[in-house]
Amino acid sequence: STMEETDREAVATAVQRVAGMLQRPDQLDKVEQYRRREARKKASVEARLKAAIQSQLDGVRTGLSQLHNALNDVKDIQQSLIDVNKDWRQSINTIENLKDVKDAVVQHSQLAAAVENLKNIFSVPEIVRETQDLIERGELLQAHRKLMDLECSRDNLMYEQYRMDSKNTHDMNLIHTYFGDMQKLSEELAKQLWMVVQRSLVTVRRDPTLLVSVVRIIEREEKIDRRMLDRKKQTGFIPPGRPKKWKEKMFNILERTVSTRIEGTQADTRESDKMWLVRHLEIIRKYVLDDLLVAKTLLDQRFPPHYDIFNKLLNMYHQALSTRMQELAAEDLEANEIVSLLSWVLNTYKSAEMMGNSELSPEVDVNSLDPLISQNVVDQLLSKYMSTLTSNIIGWLRKALETDKKDWIKETEPEADQDGYYQTTLPAIVFQMFEQNLQVAAQINEDLKAKVLLLCLQQMNSFLTRYKDEAQLYKEEHLKNRQYPQCYVQYMIAVINNCQTFKESIISLKRKYLKMEMEDSWSSSHTNMDTTLDIIAKEGCSSLLDEVFMDLEPHLNELMTKKWLMGSNAVGTICVTVEDYFNDFAKIKKPYKKTMTIEAHRRVVVEYIRAIMLKRISFKNAEERKEGAERMIKEAEQFRFLFKKLAAGSGEDTEGLCDIIEAIAEVIKLTDPSLLYLEVSTLVSKYPDIRDDHIAALLTVRGDASRDMKQTIIETLDQGPSQPNPNYVPIFKEITVPTLTVPKLLK
Question: Which GO BP annotation is one of this protein's (predicted)?
């Protein structure tokens, strides 16, 4: 058994321990000592064991007694429950009969509330009167406090009624009617608030506390709105007139005020004032800037931050401006008005004079502002502007030319510029008009400026063609009656000078307004204009020379005649006439005047040689030949002197022209006929465009060459070499020699 096993183990252990103690002989002496020690140990262990067993037994005893008590308690509870069950079954009927008490309690609480409200209910008319007075005196905060009390009374009564009997609309209406005046009060107070809001930008400067009161009232109402809406979620009841949404209304009022403010700035119409739009836009600019500065510096502080009042106002102004600008853009605007509008919308609005004002930043960032009118509307306005401008420019140019033509027939000389050159006001008028339109276009943008410049040049091109035609007509009219117009020469000079002015003005316009990249689209029209101007000037100069030669005709007809040989003063008269004309021609500008002088010189010489070739005289003898030749040489000298004087300072060398006359004179003067061939061949080698008929005519005038001799000379000449002066411009090719016709023989 287990017990025996335990004993065996105990003995074995004891043996082992004793053996351990008695290892050496001297330890045997201590056996008694060892026995006593072991006996003590054993006694101690036994005592501990006894104590442990005792406490175990105590615990078991306590546990048993508690279990016994618990059992008794359970029995008691079971009995009590049986009793309660019995009582409850008996009292069910009694509870049924308590409903009346419950109703009485509800009624009692309502009556208590009614008694509480009676004080308020009876004083409603009086409070309404007091509130009305407060509103009239402008004491809005106190008035609102009373209004809130009234509304609170009504709402509580209605709520009680609703709770008691939500279907009873009759009683609800009764309460509503009784408090009817209160609704009017609320409207009356609101009207006062909106008046303050409308004038908020003025009020904030004069009476900021009034504005603060209004904001406080609106905030109170917002809070009540929120409370009522919460209660509605829970109970389904909301008093009449709620939510009032006064904050939303306040913003609507502000929005209307801003719109009215902007619309109301148009004081004039086009009929009453040509500058109506400029004024209108300037007033808008000033008002909006002033309002926003006040809003930023003063108004912002009077409103709670969550109202974000400045940004809201900024948006309202932007919207109202956008609407107004679109309305204006839709009107039938004139060209200058379109420019005013676009310049304001595209430039002024975002400039430092308005939204870009440093005092408005950083709240206003011009880069994030939307455009006031869409690109589409801008494009429509620009294209309307261009088409209006086109027809305007055509009209202006036509009118300018008509006005200029009226001057051409005046009996007074044209104006002269500071250097004494004749001119009319035409170029100045035309280019002043171009300048104005370009400066206007530049206000909008570079692109428009470029378009206007090209438009001006295109119109200028067609205008110059008309100018050329008008100058031609002017000349033709004058030829019908040379007495008229009286100052034809002076006005023709003015037309020629205008060509030079036009050229210079075109260049200066180009320099001032033309971008490099537009050069191509410009150059062809520029070349065209220059060509047209040169033609006008050239035709003008040529018509002036025609004038001179028409006056010279009778005197030219006298040359190389008997009368001439006898000593007429035809050349003297020719020189005086030419010089007289050239006093006027001095008023022609440099490049054209130089051409005129050369051309006049050339034509005089041509006419003189033509007179020789007309064979009006045939010298009888050497004496006459000598006299005639010397006269020719002297007259060539007169011409040379005259044209030197006229060309003074132009550095033009036309000496060679008069040399031709002298060379011809030498052929006529020659006394030895055997040298005639040599003299003629020298002449031909110098002037290779001399034809056979010229030589024949020349020999006829000499008067001593037989037909055979002429024949021989002419035939021999054909083989001769020529050595003309490299600067020689052929002159003989334009001189025809008359052939004898029948009428001539009959004369």
Answer: protein transport
